[in-house]
Amino acid sequence: MNIPTTTENVRIFDTTLRDGEQSPGCSMTPQQKLVMARGLADLGVDVIETGFPASSQSDREAHALIARDLKDTTLAVLSRCLAADIETSLRTVQAAARPRLHLFLSTSPLHREHKLRMSREQVLESVHKHVTMARAHIDDVEFSAEDSTRTEEDFLHQVVATAIAAGANTINLPDTVGFTTPEEIRGMFERVIAQVPGADRVIFSTHCHNDLGLAVANSLAAIEGGARQVEGSINGIGERAGNCAIEEIVMALKVRNAFYNLGTRVDTRRIVPTSQLLSRLVGMPVQRNKAIVGANAFAHESGIHQHGMLRHRGTYEIMEPQDVGWPASQMVLGRHSGRAAVEQRLRALGYWLEEDELKLVFEQFKALCEKQRVVGDADLQALMQDASVSD
Ligand code: KIV
Ligand code: ZN
């Protein structure tokens, strides 16, 4: 498949080691984070968020290890809008060759009232004070308006204007609880970018959670609305139902390049190895039917699909498996498979059968499928011996 590429890139901000690690059962030691960070750098992400230094000594250690090792990737750390957090975060992040401080504060009415107990004015003051404080020490500051998608739009515009005026270079508008829809988030980005003073000086970022299974669709819509940085994690791990899966957004931009006309720096052939690395490190298997990186993503069992694939792979595949790091597509032989696929597999194993021989073996294959879900090469070889067909 000839997939065209383009030169304008969307930045990939990887938060596997921070938001991803917040996923229940996915915590990593500093050494494990270092191994994963190397994998992410090889993959070609633009920014790696290494952790939340004020929250743990382990995150501070992880950042120090990663900063010693990776000099070409921007390394970000997360910080609340609190002077003490910012001091700790700055001390930690400045070990990086390319440091970024990622400040966040909730902006939605629900969070203002129940979590922060702050008025709109207090939120604006805090944004101004803490972004200014951070910018006095570091050039690269990202500000996230947590729960943006449930924030009143006029107030969100004020928050963004304040963060930009105080010196933030990247503005992230997270869908913290995975509540928005594609149409809604696209409009939110379009209007912020068109209406907020200074919006043309910064990069807008999208950070979507997957509570309704819409994280990737919403991230794509945010890109349509003008976002040029996408935040996500490998295998989509993250709080609750997870974050936008990086492998999915990257491949969506690549496969549908003619529509989006945007690319990424990611070496897509590293996607599957990186996914498997994470799965091993955190001990969380990838679901078989997961897009791109699941074991079934390029596997075909039904006779009609296998027949189509044997004639032209484009009938049932929109990407080449090798493009994302799988060795090949798989024809899985089972109850739904047809004669063409069985014949093709037998030929690959060195058995060239006459029509009547194939008919006989195929009947035995179907009988075997009543007893087991998948028929492997060893099963086929045993069938051939039992059938005593000449090869
Ligand atoms: O989901 C969220 O809002 C976050 C922020 C801290 C960026 O993870
Ligand atoms: Zn998040």
Automatic annotation (TrEMBL):
Pathway: Amino-acid biosynthesis; L-leucine biosynthesis; L-leucine from 3-methyl-2-oxobutanoate: step 1/4. Its cofactor is Mn(2+). It catalyses: 3-methyl-2-oxobutanoate + acetyl-CoA + H2O = (2S)-2-isopropylmalate + CoA + H(+). GO terms for cellular component: cytosol. Mn(2+) binds at D19, H207, H209, N243. One of its GO terms (biological process) is L-leucine biosynthetic process. GO terms for molecular function: 2-isopropylmalate synthase activity; acetyl-CoA C-acetyltransferase activity; manganese ion binding. Its EC number is 2.3.3.13. The keyword Metal-binding applies. Keywords: Amino-acid biosynthesis, Branched-chain amino acid biosynthesis, Cytoplasm, Leucine biosynthesis, Manganese, Metal-binding, Transferase. Residues 10-272 form the Pyruvate carboxyltransferase domain. Catalyzes the condensation of the acetyl group of acetyl-CoA with 3-methyl-2-oxobutanoate (2-ketoisovalerate) to form 3-carboxy-3-hydroxy-4-methylpentanoate (2-isopropylmalate). Homodimer. Belongs to the alpha-IPM synthase/homocitrate synthase family. LeuA type 1 subfamily. This is 2-isopropylmalate synthase. The chain holds residues 1 to 391 of 515 of the full protein.
